[in-house]
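forwarding from the other thread:

> can someone predict this with nicotinamide-adenine-dinucleotide?

sure thing
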Amino acid sequence: MKILITGGAGFIGSNFIHYWTKKYPSDAIVNLDKLTYAGNLSNLRAVEKNPNYKFIQGDIADDKLVEKIFQEEQFNLVAHFAAESHVDRSILDPNAFIQTNIVGTHNLLRAALQNKTRFHHVSTDEVFGSLGKTDPAFNEKTPYDPRSPYSASKAAADHLVRAYFHTYGLPVTISNCSNNYGPYHFPEKLFPLFITNLLEGKKIPLYGDGLSVRDWLYVEDHCRAIDAIIKSGKIGETYCVGGNSEKSNREATDEILKLLGKGEEMIEYVADRPGHDHRYAIDATKIKNELNWEPTVSFETGLQKTVEWFQNNEAWWMHIKNGEYQDYYKKQYGK
Ligand code: NAD
Ligand code: DAU
């Protein structure tokens, strides 16, 4: 099988490439990634010399490039991860979110249709909006109600994916997943920012009252879920994926502080995120019943592994924090 993975130099995409190359070593992988600030080829050092792996630097919003790559490579499957993914950045400037998440996804869908390629879209639970404290968790039937430019752009992409299934018969699936954490998580998001700040002796900025709730899933469990959907998911269907692990940001922060032996004086309460979604939670019954998928890594174990990974990979995150990671491609590929 030949697979196009978009956004493979980012957090989840690079974890997925490691997962897939270990589990299916004879599959060929092409990683198409623009290398935005969030793309980091040093996430992929362990696979870059693998003869079944190829990297192409390119923008999914460039329709001609996308068309050319599809014609040349003849993929069996697209696993589409590439996106602008950070809510705070989407509030500051939505433009790149529209280009990549909507226009880029549409370019991929059109090329997939021309080449009759199976398409999986990696989407988010944020398309469903925000839950109240006692609301039931999101499931596949929850109406869309996105509230940030990021989630609105992901919702638009999901709608386009479904439109290509209903209108043109493109074989698609979608996964809407909750918050991931683990190795290679870019240190602008809550967990990696807080862990690395604490390792540097810096304070950690908790938004608002710190009581917003997220449902945390260890990234490898997300990769297993996408694998199950790609291999056995029903065409045209959506699967909600979650960690069964709701924590308020303050609860999660306390766990991180404990693991790093730091006290609550390190917390700095700062202004809330505009339009901050209060709570996300996923009811993953469908994927459990139909595809026999469940999270295997508990929050406690996953967080411990994650903290240890950041402790053991100081150079990785230091290079991001000081900007040196962007030189890696130049050194490696001479461009
Ligand atoms: P990330 O920001 O870490 O990585 C995104 C990758 O996409 C980067 O390598 C970047 O260079 C690449 N990219 C961005 N714009 C591009 C473009 N125009 N063309 C080609 N490549 C481009 O993101 P992530 O956290 O790994 O998320 C991956 C996917 O999973 C996204 O679609 C996101 O919406 C979805 N998702 C993320 C989470 C989460 O908790 N992180 C949860 C659910 C779903
Ligand atoms: O739910 C899935 C989504 O999870 C993905 O679709 C997004 O791509 C991913 O970024 C993530 O979105 P969140 O906005 O939930 O993640 P973030 O790490 O930015 O924030 C998690 C929570 O922590 C949120 O309630 C805001 C809060 N927060 C975040 C940061 C960066 C803080 O309190 N302080 C911070 O500095």
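The two ends are 30 Å apart (CA to CA). thats all i got for now
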